[in-house]
Amino acid sequence: MDQDEEGGTDAHFQNKSIRSFLWTGLTVKVEDRRTKQQKAILSNVDGMVTEGELMAVMGPSGSGKSTLLQVLSQRRRFPTVSADGLLYLNGVAADATEFRRMSAYVEQEDALIGSLTVRETLNFAARLSTPAASKAERLRRVAALLAAFGLSDVADDLIGTTIKKGVSGGQKRRVSVAAQLVTGPRILFLDEPTSGLDSAAAFEVISFLRLVAERYRLIVIASIHQPATSTFMMCNKLLLLCQGHIAYSGPPDAIARHFRASDLSIPDMMNPAEFALDFVNTDFARSRDEAERQVGQVTSSWYISEQKRITDGEMSDELARSSMGVEVDVDPAPISTPSMLSVVATLAHRSFVKSYRDVVVYGIRVVMYLGLALLMGTVWLRLDPNQSNIPAFVSAIFFGGAFMSFMAVAYIPAFLEDYATFREERANGLYGPCPFLLANFLVGVPYLFCITLVFSLAEYWLSNFRPAAGGFFTWVMWLFLDLIAAESLVVLVTSAFPIFVVALAGTAFVNGLWMCVGGSLRPVDGLNPFWRYAFHYIDYQSYVFQGMMHNEFDRRTYSCQLLPGDQCQCSYDTVLKDQCMIRGDAIPASYGLGHEPAAHAVPVMIAIIAAYRILAWLVLDRRRA
Predict the structure, then answer these.
(1) Which of 1, 51, 82, 407 has its CA at a distance of 20 to 30 angstroms from the CA of residue 462?
(2) How many CB atoms lie within 10 A of CB 520?
């Protein structure tokens, strides 16, 4: 049935080219960091799934389930991993590039943007994956998926953020699968799609996976941990692993017969999946020898079993079928590649929707910086331009720039959410790091300008900095560049270390370093050669401090202190000393900033911002999925 009641078409999702997917002799080894020896994660694993089938990959923790999925999906992530074995589509050796183009991988954790609705999530996925389709066609495909996955009633509900609750956990998993299915894959891999769900939600997810496999004739392979009996029996095939070896491969309802043949009967009223997992779990063996004996018993029972003979026969028949030239065309429908401009526009649109809906992205930062501006403006309230207030002006300049830069760490959670989505979409071949970072930059710039303007309108005039329009807008320019550089630093560090605590600590450390060598806490001339030449000249905060100091002091004078008897005491010796005044440009000079204007620093700031973004691109480009 290619046409649903709403007029949407699901022909795009139908698999009409891939009849079978099988693998033989799959062995995966990784180098042990301690012993420097090769350690086998998977050993001689075979398997086959045909169109319309759902295979469950089961086994205790550390049995190799996730590794098997990553190797089968051609998404190996570690260069130290070596894999041997053969993969076949319709009995023909699979090409890695073509295979990745016709398959999709759903991560264990939902890589969804919480501030989007279910419909928007699928619509953006469709825009990224099917650029040649018209808007009407994309909407029809999204409507067909919403109906097929039972999501029509929650189509306009948010996925859910840390502040606002959204759809349920089971519905999120269905959205994750649907977002990958909209790309039109023929083979779908899922890493523990029931993780974190209760038994009812897990059954719901597996039921929909089987429905999707049957309806669209897809090949679905999912790792599952500790399923309920009803969930277990929903699968067409089971691949049970024990320390990287096959313990069973075949229909779930035949596993009881297999264990009986091995003199291990499953007790009545016991979940077969639970019994099987307990049987192959060697984690609680009393000794290494006992664990090895248990693994040996499991694997030997499989190799002499009737079920293995049946499975091997099915695989041999499929390979023989292809050798006779029967239905070996595995080339899927041609896929159009979106242009860079199209991808950037789609990602920017999605990021913009997220940015104004999710207060965590920029809303909280606007309030935070406004509160900081009012705090600073009332602490440094209406400073008179006299000698005693010069240190206060300097400290206000330093604190404003440094604290605004430091608090850019508040952007880390929002970027981590974007990074998780990018990682999954990139793994499925939708786009690379360049459009991702470019869209991120374009969306962030106007918000950072608004933050700068809100902060400056309150703090600049309350503290009585140089009362001139030129002075105000120059102040805004420096703080704006400061915030862009700070957010670019966050993007770089978080791209390199995409773990919240590590990214937070790394960004805080770098900002602390920039504060120390920026020339505000200690004059530039006082820094030892290492800190000065290694870090000071690449410190964006130093250029912000320099520019704001010149902006405030170069065009302003300050009154000296009057002593009894109308004597004048000036702490800075300038040409205005006879007038009991201080010429302001002497103050930046005392910090080693010189008398020249700081306009030359603007190109340097732009170069630093560009360097941070380019380095982030290099990091993401090197970290291939």
Answers:
(1) 407
(2) 25
Distance CA 259, CA 263 (A): 6
b/e code 303-338 from CB counts within 10 Å (16+ = b): eebebbeebeeebeebbebbeeeeeeebebeeeeeb
- Which whole-number Å values give the CA distances from 405 to 411, 500, 501, in the listed order? 11, 18, 18
Task: Check: CB of residue 144 under 8 Å from CB of residue 13.
Answer: yes
Round the CA-based radius of gyration of the chain to a whole number and report it. 32
Cα–Cα distance, 200 to 427 (Å, whole number): 30
**Is there a contact between 197 and 209 (Cβ–Cβ < 8 Å)?**
no
Cα(229)–Cα(429) distance, rounded to whole angstroms?
36
Q: How far apart are CA 269 and CA 282, in angstroms?
A: 24
Sign of dihedral through CA atoms 66, 69, 72, 76?
negative
Amino acid letter, residue 382:
R
pLDDT in tens, 349-382: 999 999 888 877 888 888 889 999 999 999 999 9
pLDDT band (50, 70, 90) for residue 337 = low
Conformational region of residue 427, where left means phi above 0, alpha means psi within -120 to 50, and beta covers everything else:
alpha
Alpha-carbon distance of 563 to 561, in angstroms, equals 6
Per-residue pLDDT, averaged over 264-286, amounts to 74
pLDDT of 329 above 70: no
Please state whether beta strands 245-250 and 237-242 pair in parallel, antiparallel, or not at all (unpaired). antiparallel
Mean pLDDT, the chain, integer: 85
CATH class of 11-323: alpha beta
438 phi and psi angles, rounded to 5 deg: -65, -45
Find all residues with CB under 8 Å of 479, minimum gap 6, and list them: 400, 401, 404, 452, 455, 456, 544, 548
Give the number of C-alpha atoms closer than 13 A to the C-alpha of residue 558, restricted to the C-beta side: 31
Taking residues 522-533, report their average pLDDT.
Answer: 88
Output the pTM of the full model: 0.84
How confident is residue 285, by pLDDT bands cut at 50, 70 and 90?
low
Give, in degrees to the nearest 5, the angle at Cα 22 between 21 and 26: 135
Over residues 465-499, the pLDDT tens digits come to: 999 999 999 999 999 999 999 999 999 999 999 99
Digit-coded pLDDT (tens) for 59-97: 888 788 888 888 888 875 555 567 788 888 888 888 777
